[in-house]
Amino acid sequence: MEYEDASPEVRAVYDDIMATRKIDQINNFWKALASHPPTLRRTWESLKEVMAPGALDPLTKEMVYLAVSVTNSCEYCIASHSAAARKAGMTEEMFGELMGVVGMANETNRLVNGYRVPVDERFKR
Amino acid sequence: MEYEDASPEVRAVYDDIMATRKIDQINNFWKALASHPPTLRRTWESLKEVMAPGALDPLTKEMVYLAVSVTNSCEYCIASHSAAARKAGMTEEMFGELMGVVGMANETNRLVNGYRVPVDERFKR
Amino acid sequence: MEYEDASPEVRAVYDDIMATRKIDQINNFWKALASHPPTLRRTWESLKEVMAPGALDPLTKEMVYLAVSVTNSCEYCIASHSAAARKAGMTEEMFGELMGVVGMANETNRLVNGYRVPVDERFKR
Amino acid sequence: MEYEDASPEVRAVYDDIMATRKIDQINNFWKALASHPPTLRRTWESLKEVMAPGALDPLTKEMVYLAVSVTNSCEYCIASHSAAARKAGMTEEMFGELMGVVGMANETNRLVNGYRVPVDERFKR
Amino acid sequence: MEYEDASPEVRAVYDDIMATRKIDQINNFWKALASHPPTLRRTWESLKEVMAPGALDPLTKEMVYLAVSVTNSCEYCIASHSAAARKAGMTEEMFGELMGVVGMANETNRLVNGYRVPVDERFKR
Amino acid sequence: MEYEDASPEVRAVYDDIMATRKIDQINNFWKALASHPPTLRRTWESLKEVMAPGALDPLTKEMVYLAVSVTNSCEYCIASHSAAARKAGMTEEMFGELMGVVGMANETNRLVNGYRVPVDERFKR
Question: If E74 and its partner were Cys, which of A13, A66, B110, F109 is the partner (CB 3.0–4.6 Å)?
């Protein structure tokens, strides 16, 4: 749904996205969600809160987002959050190391399953 | 496989793990892998290389590892990498924000799928 | 595999699919499975039984199918079961709410993992 | 975090959960999230909105939640949403059919992958 | 559901399982499915057909089953199919190599995602 | 990254890949990894070790790789490992049976989750 065709409720979200992110176009993701305004509004408000700078900096958050998206095979999310992470300062070297960690985590997660490794006593809650 | 029962090949890996991580016990994960020494050696060498400080700092790497393990529902990995991330400096506040990002990424990954969002032209390669 | 090129065994399945669903074309899914007739037959018989009206109505079943396909990132399945669910009566509003539930379930599934929440006594079996 | 030890901010969420759901105990899930109050509040507000009756009835929503949790292997979520779905009216017969659909969807999602089935022209957007 | 409490329909499936597999006890999996007899019967008939010796031998099939279960983090399935694969001839060395392949496949699947690798022309259909 | 543009470090890996696999072109996967040479080298060395003939033959290993890739919905990996498995001797019949096992494993993995089946005493470690 394009800006010009959107209801005031949807436009308000689009405006807040553009203002918060200092951008002047709306990604296809938000345009798609706009077909169900409550989901658009709720998702944007949650994402805005979660991705705001806090105890973790924006670059770390974007790299974590990318790591999850890569693990879940979400092509769109990988494309958009790769761009966002690079914009936030991720270099080619950092991306290479990030993929190294993501790859090894996915590998060892399965080795743990296959070998049925019991949780060490000192890691229990 | 306990240290005292291990072959010289396995002991060499155990020794390197303890020296590299400055610890004096071997986690159940490595003891389980020791039943197939080539997998033990290869996995350790890869993990050692991937988790070494580089363009990304060790805390960021541990949090990414945790994010992947949470996405994959690997109970053992969540337990051990939560401990490792906390040892590397992750506070309760940072953990809360990390989970916020992991949760939202898992949510939006599926919204993208369900709404069949096409990749924006500017994110294409 | 097109109808005209199919063996009698495959044609019998195609005929049953078209008669059961009151349609006159065979989806690419079945044409692909036809390269291994036992898988074609078995999959169709199972699907026919599982998707038949019963204690759950066909629309509910199609929405559950879609929810699983979205969670698994199966593009083909999302496309075909979105169409099937709409044909069975899913409105845009229902789809929006469905995606809301699917998204939140994927989010909270991971929060549960990350926070390592123990099962409440009263939910145990 | 138990009610008596909770801050006013956390107590307000606990109170709203108990009032909305007409229950008098707080699940372990919310007690765990309470260690990061913003995540507790945001998750509850989203879940409350998403699970409220709307175009889909509460039972359908609970069954969809369960279907996703089963697909993701979230033990806690399966336990709690099985209970919630039964409370909302899910019979043993309905559960059996639900699992039938979830199982077949997970099976056919992979057959589609393996056979690399192209999306039918009429299902494209 | 135990044999002595089962309906004739359920007993017939139990009998066929024990006869086909030359065993004299029923696994918890089948006892659980027995609460919905159509799912019990359908699942057993499909599994019996799929796991029968054919172009692939039983050991290969059990190892593939185990590889999928490890990838999906299904604890019960890993336990039961590890046992079945060992009974069919899987040695410790074979298990070690199997896990090596499963681990690397899970790793490279994600590297492919992260690096957004386009399918080589000669692998296209 | 094409051979002619590659550094000596990257060329050495490309040369080893072509010599080991007796091929004369480099897949897009390796060309993509070449943007981070340590990941290229490490991934190739691990893959070379894991896929070498051992207690399991190369065809079995390729089919397991394919089974995991199908379960993970990795389109590129399915395309390249289907080709590799066929080259190693997988017939259409074997592929059909392989997909049958992969499909059923994905189905029963979820039935186990949904029915919350406890591990049988004799499968415990």
Answer: F109
